[in-house]
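Worked example (supplementary).
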Amino acid sequence: MNVTVNINGAERTADVEPRLLLTDFIRGTLGLTGTHMGCDTTSCGVCTVLLDGVPVKSCTVFAVQANGRSITTVEGLKQNGQLSPIQQAFHQEHGLQCGFCTPAMMLVGTALLEENPNPSEDEIRWAISGNLCRCTGYMNIVKSIQAAAAMKSEEVSA
Amino acid sequence: MTTTAEPHSLLTTPEVSGLGHSRKRVEDARFIEGRGNYVDDIVLPGMLYMAIHRSPLAHARILSIDTSEAAAMEGVIAVVTGELLAGYNLAWMPTLSGDTQAVLATDKVRFQGQEIAAVIATDRYIAQDAADKILVEYEELEPIVTPQRSLEQDAPLIRDDKEGQTNNQCYTWESGDKEGTDAAFAGADKIVSLDTFYPRSHPAPLETCGIVADVNSATGQATLYMTSQAPHAHRTVFALVAGLPEQNIRIVSPDIGGGFGNKVPVYPGYVVATAASLVIGKPVKWVETRTENLISTGFGRDYHMHGELAVTRDGKILGLRVDMLSDQGAFFSDAQPTKFRAGLFHIVTGSYDYPVAHVTTRGAYTNKAPGGVAYRCSFRVTEASYMIERLVQNAAYELGMDPAEFRMKNFIKKDQFPYLSPTGFVYDSGDYEGAMKLALEMVGYDEIQKEKEQARGEGRLVGIGLASFTEVVGAGHGDDYDILGLRMFDSAELRVHPTGKAILKLGVRSQGQGHETTFAQIVAEELGIPASDIKVVEGDTDNTPYGLGTYASRSTPVAGAATAVIARKLRDKAKKIAAHLLEASEDDLEWEVGKFSVKGDPESSVTIQDVAFAAYTDVGEGIEPGLEGVHYYDPPNMTYPFGTYAVVVDVDPGTGQWKVRRMVAVDDCGVRINPMVVEGQIHGGLTEGFAMSSMQHITFDEQGNCIGSNFLDYLIPTAWETPRFELGATVTPSPHHPIGAKGVGESATVGSPAAFVNAVIDALWPLGVHNIDMPVSADRVWAAMEEAKS
Amino acid sequence: MYPSKFDYLAPTTIDEALGVLAEKGPEIKILAGGQSLVPMMKLRLANPPALLDINRLPGLDSIEDSNGHLSIGALVRHNHVVKSDAVKDANHTVATAAPWVSDPIVRNLGTVCGSLAHHDPEGDWASVMLATGADVVLRSRQGERVLPITDFFVDMFQTMCRPDELVTEVRVNKHTARGGGDYQKLERKVGDYATVGVATSLELADDGSIAHAGIALTSVYAHNLKVTEAEDLLRGSQPGTELFKEAAVIASAACDPADDHRGSAAYKRHVVGVFTERGLARSLEIAQGGQS
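After joint prediction of all chains, the assembly is encoded as:
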């Protein structure tokens, strides 16, 4: 079946089987390997992408469902050669160690801040509770999202 | 973060970024752009995909394997069975513990999830379709799911493949002084005993294990991209197992999405993929699913422990006895030093000063996945630390003493180091009282104790738990520490370029610990070359010196030492070159970070960059050109990080649920290369300790079905359940380590489970609850409270 | 890890969709959020020959507070309910339960109606609807029918939805100013199914007595269990701690939990009792306070 998506601002088309998971479409067919696969029960969230701006676990969506829709992956966070606030924040606050959950965490953080520009710590922890991390203990991921919120509000007031 | 230590007086500026700087990580650049290079990101021309067919049964004879339907499917290139591998003498392989393990089962299956056959196809979906079509006929046998049953006289023999094996005993091992300990116990006022089970747990890094095996039939070169924490050791194992000449094997361990010990063993999947690539002549990729990862790869723990502490009535420990029975699964495949069949479990004597101990251990085969040493355990120190810290806590209660006071009374004192423990460890340095005092202060221990009283009156349950652990890491001197005979030294190769930049190559392999950032800081400290001018390379066996890899918190103690030593050797050579450039004698030169100058004449100086250039252009009479070297460091001793953790919990008596109100962690890992990185390691370890104490374990039913082979059953806490951590630090350098550093990666996993459990027990002890084994889930809390009522 | 092969249809009108169901009903599974179906397909526990993706059908994605009930369309995601002001004001049981469903990412795709149509005994929504009262709207080529939720549910994973039918809407009762509701859930971690879940709903009469009571249980019976005996006890009585205790005892006795890795049957029964008391107390607090 034909699938056309707008991914990180670019239109891509491919012919795929209905059963092809969106994660494999992104990683294999489109060659964007920043989105990861970590489990087989929709539990870990390292496959999270933004589908029309909303975080979804791409391992539990078929590529054919994304036909005609827009997807943002980690590769789409950088804009005009500039790292986004969330990317800068994760680096500043040591929000990553092995990096495997990081793309997902940053995308969920990005979506959260769109909706809630100044979240409390509890709100951040709640928002990322669908995404696992084994390395950081979440402390610095929370700090990173808080730092990104601060950066973004500075941008706004500047 | 709070510390009572003298802040590490920074020798270098932030630009140079030597020791003590919280240098931001070099690794981040690629990960935050989604440009990491993990094994599953690797795509080679013509690459095929492998899927493994696994046994649904825990113990059964294989009567037949029918691969015909699978082999006939479109897109399937080959189906590999044990029979095929046997032709290449590859159906069995050695384990890192000197046992053998089936690569693909031929006679019997010995655990649920064991590898039976593999399909190689053009696409992973097709590979799975075909794997599902393999038909195996089994004759079921009694599954052994406990080590106790395994050692009974009439238990069926699991390892009938091993010549001379007549029972299911895997090993026995003993340490300490039985007679002396018996005497101490005979003279004790009181004996405190505790039976506890540390359940099977699994590292479950978010990236599963995998390989892209590329055996080039034209050149004979085998390039194996593998999730490997120990690429050199793996290369040697491959050479021995597969009969491939070692110089033709190149193992590349690319970015690894978490290891925690899970990526130390050699798995059948790696061997089959390599054999398949050899035979087919194309690259073969195998990346396991999460289910495969949990059901078949290296797990941790599964220790049944009985501990006894002999004490005087006023609270002095006289001796310790521990008996342990471990569940090793179907094969003995622990990656641990060969002389220690139970790893470093005999550190179970802990942070306390007493003259005698006796530790007896046995391992049993069962019909479960093989393993035991994995999961951030420092070779069984997690189990040991848990045992002693639970025992000490209960001893305090039984004596009517405060648990902090009891520990303090028995701590090894600061001036007793180096301290020879009753089981032969020489603890290098420690200040246990210092760490304890800081932890108590940070958590407000006395106020919490007061609150407990009041809370009970109001029907609330509050508890505060402590754990004062001593870790032992940095395996270790080669005379005592080897894996499969490979001595556990490690290495660093440093080369300074003409323009004053450098490249550092290591025998270890980070899986998130930040070596690219932190090891450059070691060199920066010694040579004054800015850390940002130093590239750090790990993981490619063709391009790095031989090392035993990263696990058991050994990188800083061993490869870090090697790095400091080689940097100092280069500095010594640099001094000679500087003397030549300054036309002075070496004795007249002094060094300050990055610069040699003539004593008394500071204008007469050369920078390290000047020297680097000169090494290639004007090196001086009798001096070899270049500025590089390699050092293999055989550590004189282990290092002993330590700390005290304090946890405050509130228990809901209605549901048994408990919530962590405060968690204070004071760690001492000696000199901290990069405090930010150290804290990150501790956060991660505390979370894993919390996970094991509250929800995370693998169990088996009576048929040997694995409960915990996916993330619905194997529970990993999210940011919502995970507590917030407050970190403190003391700094007691290691006297024998070149930069005074100790390892730290596993301290928090080692020390924290007991702290969490002790907190819950502290809340419930007045109700008559004296022990709850991990995971201390809500239902177990309630059941314990109910039982105590009756 | 990967599903078996299947055919895929994604119609853009309801009529088209109903046509497909009329023709292929028994061999086709409806894909809405897919957060229950797709995981089962990936483990090959479900191998439907074809999927009917209803996500492109218009008019099914709104929450309306009208006609005396709260209407939740077939494509309303769990998170829409979480964020909905209309829900917060209209039904407290629904509002309290919504954030407990699965995890925040899954809630972006999973649907309330899909959950009801799936009828997993460990699913939360069924208990909420049983406690608070609701009607399910089913459409087919043959027309539309409306079933009370108690008739809609048959047994574990079984409902009255025919193979040619699509659940288009659930019409949920609203709380009045003298109504209140709650959902208590014990989960081992975010994303785990309930060890025990208890949905409660109370409506008070002018004299403060209980006009309507709803109690339903998750994960402690073959299917979500409406505890009618306890509801009967409460109806007509003056609310109070002792009465709620009695109701809790009935609820505890009525359930039939399994001994499993989430806990013993005895433990779960105990928690049912604790949660029933707590839930009723909270529902009363809201009902008496006028708002949450």
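Two points are worth noting when inspecting this output. The interface with chain C takes residues 124-125, 128-129, 132, 289, 291, 654-657, 695, 699, 707, 712-713, 715-718, 720-721, 777-779, 782-783, 786 of chain B (CB under 8 Å). The radius of gyration of chain B is 27 Å.
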